[in-house]
Fold Molybdopterin molybdenumtransferase.
Amino acid sequence: MTLPIAWADAREAVFEAGSAVASSPVPVPLVESDGLTLAEPLTTLTALPAFPTSSVDGWAVRGPAPWQIVGRVLAGDHAEPLTAEGTCVEIATGGMVPEGTLFVVRTEDSTVEGRRVVSGEPRKIPDWRLTGEEAALGEELLPAGTPITPGVIGLAAACGYDTLSCRPKPRSALLVFGDELLTDGVPGGGRVRDALGPSLPSWLRRAGTDVVHHRAPVADTLEEHVAALRAAVNAGAQVICTTGGTMHGPVDHLHPALAELGATYIVNTVAVRPGFPMLVAQLPGGQFVAGLPGNPQSTFVALVSLVLPLLAGLTGRAQPAHSTIKLGADIPGRGDYTHLALVRRDPLDGMGYPVAHAGSSMLRGLANSIGFAIIPPGGRGLAGTPALLVPLPILDGERV
């Protein structure tokens, strides 16, 4: 019998396995890079700003008032130096501040008569941005492994980048095992509706993969399991997620299928409840098989426990970090096992509460949850105390 590995050790093992075979960087145009990962640090190609710029509409002046108006600088213009005392140029927001400028006077703080600005005082905070005020040339702004967001793209564009060196999204596949599954209609007569086939691809996309292959259900025979795994490999999947069949019952064929394909286990059962019969194995071609238990809540425990760290390693990101939430109620432990307990965040007090309908075969609790509170082995969660939280994968704009 295989002894289960500690939950934290299992996460580290699959993260390191993914990191060892992370995809090579590729250059990607800025507009196509959202959701990818920086393969190299983002460093400035120029100082930010690259030249002094006015932050207001007004006058760039040299010397004491009054100032003779000798020109205009709009955003995008190259500004000639101010060389004579008592001169100024009209300047627009974003305009290049001429060399020789003493200060910038706002339009509303000045008096103009004909071709002269006869009075004006600068404000206490200068109304222009100095060269390199935001960043110096060659400064590292973001490290390799940073997820690329619209904010990162905008920063890269401001630095002068046209492309970014990125780790591409891992390609994934989903195989749902089980003769008992219906793919449409109302369950009954001993058969249940497949809830994982429709939902897991969305979770995988939220986790940062491209789902390139999906089959549900796969018949409960060894031949069909082996054929389905080979088809996922042929479709180009780097991570093949399967559901069900992770135990050793009469219709559990995943372990024999992995043996027939020559797979090597990285993790085989984890000391976590629910969902302990989870696994990650690697095929001879380098592809990973993530065996997720068939009970829905256990499936998602395995997703956050093993699949997310594996994907982080493959993309060159840091291992997914835990957040923290204060518990609003007690949560029991699970003896020598880590307990991952579904919690919801109360909108009034912001605390985490265990959800009802959280049995291993239930999805109602999951639909109302933000993630899993971590109750360590031998411990229990106490109301009013903080607990680490494993959040469910989210898209930008979704709330945790």
Q: What stands out?
A: The longest helix spans residues 296-315. The chain has four domains: 5-23+169-315, 29-47+133-167, 53-129, 323-391.
